[in-house]
Amino acid sequence: METNNHKKVVTRFAPSPTGFVHVGGIRTALFAWLWARKYNGTFILRIEDTDKEREVEGSIEHIIESLKWLGLDWDEGPDIGGKHAPYIQSQRLDSYKKYAQTLIDKNLAYADPYTEKEIEEFRAKADLEKRPFLYREHRPENPPVWDGSMPLRLKIQEVKTSEWNDLVRGKLTAGPEALDDFILIKSDGYPTYNFAHIIDDLEMGVTHIMRADEFISSTPKFLALYEALGVERPEMATLPPIMAPGGKKKLGKRDGAKDVLDYRNEGILPEAMINFLALLGWNPGDDREVMTESQLLEAFDVTKIQHSGAQFNEEKLAWINGEYIKKMSYEDQEAYLLKFIPNDIKSLPHFTNDMLHKITPVIIERISSGLDIEMMAVNGDLDYYFKYPKLSKDILKKEQKDNITTNENIKIVIENLSKITVDNWTKEKIKEALWEYATSVGRGSVLWPMRYALSGCQKSPDPFILAELFGKEGTILRLNSALEILEDKNNE
Ligand code: GLU
């Protein structure tokens, strides 16, 4: 798509420091970032902290850490400055005052003289008459001089139907009731979001705004303000909501929208997260699902963003993550594993670098995140690599057939395996040495006790993989321990 009249693209992410950023917020940041990077534009980080009551300490640092983790870099922002500094709204109060004064001078803004009680009365009267409460119907004839102690309101010039184009949704309209004299500056001296973001976008030269659909209902007010200021407005792209699993409700903090940094702790890779988020409400127009950053940049198109809600699906995130883990180098996979293997497993007797090295591909094959590794540890699916398992005679004999005992089968397994040289000790050769015999007497009766003898677990990788991992000596040792248990009269 052609961009806005060949103007340099400037986008921004403008979070409020009200706690952690969840996936929805980050998806907004990602789309704005993709848009700027695709067109060699500028991406700005701006902190919208005008609602002091909702502010949560430490949020700004947390937001910055989240964006950095994902590699969403900005060209101007609170930590690095830039030609439009400062990038924190509470430090830009003079700028809002300046524009407020311009509007007052043009008779387009006025001080609101009413007390809260008076406004309540207006509202109650409108309710009684079953009409919407509109402040503009109570506009004071001779408003006081604005001294900062009263709210400042925009005087809506023309009460009309608003019409505008949204890059995602096309033509949008709203009736005159959407327009009312709204507050520009509150009595605490801070601007409202409605006012501050428009001034900042203007001063910072923002050309494209990407934001959530909750802002559509306020857009007529924004348009009235652009008009009052006599400025061209940026293009607007409204992103589809992200729906909680199940599809009916928007994903909110209460419906499982987690802090993105929680995903980092669970071993989600930043590139997998980016890939996943990019596909929340957009797709490349073909069936690609695993896409690198450069493929995303190449294919991304704001006009192809969908209107309807995007389904949030953690299983898909895990699947994408698994794909990225499989693509990592062997060293990185090993380091990844090491990071998530709990300490009690690391202190087991046979926990060696050599063993870790050997099991890496086996484990990587079976997981899609660090959580899965932790889960394997909890379920006892990791420790048998690093210690001899505790066996139960009954379980060993679980698949025993009438024609031959488990003891005899294990003895034959040991015998056949002993013939393989150490150099030839591979899962293929191990399988070759046992397959024919196992098939002749019933595979379960041979391979089950062998696998269980090696792992001590009812579920594990197949016995040939395990035998290769434990080496010839380790394998035969474990099989002999199983024999001892089977022959132990005390263990009936
Ligand atoms: N500060 C707003 C928020 O956090 C940003 C909205 C916008 O991007 O204009 O929701």
Describe this structure in words.
This protein is mainly alpha-helical and 492 residues long. It has helices spanning 23-38, 59-70, 93-105, 116-128, 193-203, 219-229, 260-265, 270-278, 293-299, 314-327, 330-340, 343-346, 353-364, 370-378, 393-396, 406-418, 427-441, 443-455, 463-487, and strands spanning 10-13, 42-45, 109-111, 152-154, 162-166, 170-174, 183-185, 208-212, 235-239, 242-243, 310-311. It is 44% helix and 8% strand. Among the domains are: 1-79 and 240-327, Rossmann fold; 340-387, no CATH class; 389-492, Arc Repressor Mutant, subunit A (Orthogonal Bundle), CATH 1.10.10. The protein has a 3-stranded antiparallel beta sheet with strand order 3-4-7. A two-stranded parallel sheet has the order 1-2. Strands 5-6 form a two-stranded antiparallel sheet. The longest helix is centred in the last third of the chain and has 25 residues, at 463-487. It is elongated, with a radius of gyration of 33 Å. The chain contains 19 helices and 11 strands. The chain binds glutamic acid. Glutamic acid binds next to helix 5.
Provide a quick synopsis of the model.
The protein has 19 helices and 11 strands. It has 492 residues and is mostly helical. Among the domains are: 167 residues, 3-Layer(aba) Sandwich (Rossmann fold), CATH 3.40.50.620; 48 residues, no CATH class; 104 residues, Arc Repressor Mutant, subunit A (Orthogonal Bundle), CATH 1.10.10.
Largest sheet: 3 strands, antiparallel
Give me the CATH superfamily of the domain at 1-79 and 240-327: HUPs
SSE order:
EHEHHEHEEEEHEHEEHHHEHHHHHHHHHH
Distance between the termini: 76 Å
According to CATH, the fold-level topology of the domain at 1-79 and 240-327 is: Rossmann fold
Class per helix and strand makeup: mainly alpha
Please give the CATH class of the domain at 1-79 and 240-327. Alpha Beta
